[in-house]
Design goal:
There is one protein chain. This protein has a single domain, classed as Aminoglycoside phosphotransferase (APH), C-terminal lobe (Aminoglycoside 3'-phosphotransferase, Chain: A, domain 2, Alpha-Beta Complex). Helices cover about 50% and strands about 10% of the residues. The protein is built from six helices and four strands; from the N terminus they run H-H-H-H-E-E-E-E-H-H. The strands form two sheets. The chain has a two-stranded antiparallel sheet. It has a two-stranded antiparallel sheet with strand order 2-3. The N and C termini lie far apart (about 40 Å).
Length: about 150
């Protein structure tokens, strides 16, 4: 079922992004109702928080990495319409029994939390979703000194 869910979400994102990539003028029309001046400032704060987490984890190049992330955010290509805050908690999933010999007949997926929707880089949504996947390694293992 997870692969089916991934396929549905992936196709939805591709379709949503393709509208703007194939017709760039449609991006301006689409984003008219999705304006949030706080979104840029919030993301810059998120990057600064990540920099402080890297500092706390004693990442040697935390300042350089933070500067690169902030520069990338400010200069990114905004050529696609993006949900803006896609994570697993924003996905609403409903299934019914018997789908393809499984316990589920059909799958319906909704995406909520559109307050940060607007123009963004085409891979931003899938990157955000990937970033929300918990690591299988504990933080201590990721940040310990390697001999």
């Amino acid at each position: 079922m997870a692969s089916k869910l991934g396929s549905i979400v992936g196709h939805f994102l591709a379709s949503m992004h393709d509208i703007c990539l194939s017709s760039p003028e449609s991006l301006d029309t689409l984003v008219t109702g999705f304006k949030n001046d706080d979104a840029e400032r919030l993301m810059e704060g998120t990057i600064n928080h990540a920099v402080m987490s890297m500092k706390d984890a004693e990442v040697l190049d935390y300042e350089i990495l933070g500067d690169l992330a902030l520069d990338h955010w400010k200069t990114r290509t905004k050529s696609a319409f993006s949900q803006g805050d896609l994570w697993f908690g924003a996905l609403l999933v409903q299934g019914s029994r018997g789908y393809q010999n499984s316990p589920v007949d059909a799958i319906s997926i909704g995406i909520c939390d559109w307050e940060f929707a607007g123009p963004n880089h085409p891979v931003a949504d899938i990157a955000q979703l990937g970033a929300s996947v918990p690591s299988k390694y504990p933080r201590e293992k990721l940040t310990r000194d390697v001999d």
